[in-house]
Give the backbone structure.
Amino acid sequence: MATYEIKFNQNTKIGKEIFLFLQQHNVNIKLKDPTKMTEEEFDAKLQRAREQYERGEYTVYDEDFRKNVLGIE
């Protein structure tokens, strides 16, 4: 049994069609989400944020910004 790696964006029209084709033909599919961070990447990002906070490099948004710009109640 051979293993092939095919990279395509499953959110595009052609990507959805390829994905459905493979599913209909009972092909074993493993999806890899490139947007997920590893635990080490997450920890490094969190550490950088903590260091920025300690240096005073952060912004505080008021309630009006949150409601009017971000649309969060």
Observations:
- The chain has a mean pLDDT of 85.
- The first helix runs from residue 13 to 24.
